[in-house]
Amino acid sequence: MDLFSPANKPEIRIQELTGERIRFILTNTDLSMANALRRIMISEVATIAIDMVQFDLNTSVLADEFIAHRLGLIPLDSTEADKIKYPRDCNCSGACKECSVELNLHVKCTEEDTTKDVTSKDLVSHDPRFTPITEGPKDAGILIAKLRKGQEIKVKCIAKKGVAKEHAKWSPCAAVAFEYDPFNKLRHTHYWIEEDEKKEWPQSKNANDDFPPLDDEIFDFTAKPNRFYFEIETIGSMKPEDIVMNAFKKLLEKISSIQMGLHSNDVPINGREPTRDVF
Predict the structure, then answer these.
(1) Cα–Cα distance, 220 to 243 (Å, whole number)
(2) 161 — phi, psi (to 5°)?
(3) How far does Cα 230 stand from its chain's mean position?
(4) Can you give the residue ranges of every domain in the chain?
(5) What residues does the DNA-directed RNA polymerase RpoA/D/Rpb3-type domain cover (predicted)?
């Protein structure tokens, strides 16, 4: 059984693509595949994020743990995240250039009656490929702390590669959602109405790309959804199209490993010999 034979190959039609958002229609697949793709985009696309923070000096009003937590959530450019190793795959004892990126932060307020903002723009990366995300020269950066005269923060940060299954800071997405059957032809949604369903429940914008039901259309209780409307918003660490492509690659890897396991004659399943010729 080939899940991606020509008859079963999913297709994508992009509706909208910007620097932070992508909308597309996924067709010729089922609900399980669509939901698997959504979950992979949220939690299994690798990015770079600050994982370790060493404080050399902190005289601000914020505790070390508070600042470390904020640093971990700052998006770093992860376009080339595939160029470095996962920490578990590296032979080093702690951190090296093969599996980590060092960033430094050193800010001191020296002016009277002035509050100095410490932002993500003050983070200096030792690797120009992995720097804090900014929206341009006018972007003030992400606020980390505020200092008054005499207060100082000096830290060393180690950023590593990971996925959001380990910690949410590695997620490249701010939101991932999909919708199917905007006209509710499958009757999976039960509307609470008082008088008129059409007036009280307006159609979503995806209804413009779907096929409305006919007035005398017969309900097919065996029908299943095969058209899904995705919308993904990123945090800026990766391009939205790269997130989608990486998620598809990960999904194909998972399916391939399942197929190999089912066809293997040597790997026992739950302590039993595998069944021959599963498909």
Answers:
(1) 36
(2) -85, 140
(3) 13
(4) 6-44+173-263, 48-165
(5) 21-261
